[in-house]
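Task: sequence design from structure.
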């Protein structure tokens, strides 16, 4: 799964990866980075891997 095309932070503690997701109570929670095409591709990939899970995403604004 490709990461976003734009890096929103150069902080060494920031990880811009869609593979940083959580599965909890039947939901798959992942980040979105303001890259519409890559955000959608990540949601589609995670939905295929977890077909019974609900998908949710959140935008990092720091």
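Answer:
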């Amino acid at each position: 799964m490709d990461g976003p095309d734009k890096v929103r932070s150069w902080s060494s503690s920031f990880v811009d990866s869609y593979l940083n997701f959580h599965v909890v109570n039947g939901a798959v929670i992942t980040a979105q980075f303001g890259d519409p095409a890559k955000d959608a591709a990540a949601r589609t990939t995670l939905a295929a891997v977890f077909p019974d899970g609900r998908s949710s995403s959140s935008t990092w604004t720091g």
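The chain is about 25% helix and 25% strand.
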